[in-house]
Amino acid sequence: MSLGPRGEPRKARIARNEALFREVNERVEEMTAASASDGIDFVCECGDPECTSSVPLTRAEYERVRSDPVLFAIVPGHEILDVEDVVARDERFYLVRKHVDEQDVARGLDPRS
Fold first, then answer.
1. Rounded distance, CA 3 to CA 26, Å?
2. What would the mean pLDDT of 85-93 be, rounded to a whole number?
3. Rounded CA gap, 113 and 86, in Å?
4. What is the tens place of the pLDDT at every residue in 28-83?
5. SS3 sequence, the chain?
6. CA neighbor of 94 nearest in space, from 72, 110, 62
7. Residue 6 has pLDDT above 60, yes or no
8. For residue 7, with 0-12 CB atoms within 10 Å meaning exposed, 13-18 middle and 19 or more buried, which class applies?
9. Shortest CA distance to 92 belongs to which of 23, 17, 25, 39?
10. Phi-psi region of 36 (alpha: psi -120 to 50; beta: other; left: phi over 0)
11. Which of 4, 28, 31, 72 could form a disulfide with 45 if both were Cys (CB 3.0 to 4.6 A apart)?
């Protein structure tokens, strides 16, 4: 098991990073709720804490992602296959599902739970 600088297991740290980006996107969604535009640039929810990429999603796509606390929307190519599986591919984004071992972290940090 590889540990990060604070002794946290790598896979748990990645799951926490993704959950943090999800929390940011919840705020983005709230701030754009009154907008007439259906397309919104959300923050990539990948596990890289340095990522600053955006993921263009419609409101319906975003709600699909949020319907399951172990799903995350990422920029294609940002998947980390030892902690998640790509479950849907679109030219604009990939939808990834956390592996079983990381799902508890994702569920525990879900702002909608």
1. 29
2. 96
3. 23
4. 988 887 676 678 999 999 999 999 999 999 989 999 999 999 999 999 999 999 99
5. CCECCCCCEHHHHHHHHHHHHHHHHHHHHHHCCCCCCCEEEEECCCCCCCCCCEEEEEHHHHHHHHCCCCEEEECCCCCCCCCEEEEEECCCCEEEEECHHHHHHHHHCCCCC
6. 72
7. no
8. exposed
9. 39
10. alpha
11. 72
Residue type, 105: V
Report residue 24 as tokens.
């940011």
* 18 CB burial (10 A radius; 0-12, 13-18, 19+): buried
Q: Which two tokens stand for residue 3?
A: 């540990």
The label of the residue with tokens 């409101």 reads: 59
pLDDT tens for residues 17-33?
888 898 998 999 888 87
Specify the length of the chain in residues: 113
pLDDT band per the 50, 70, 90 thresholds, residue 111: confident
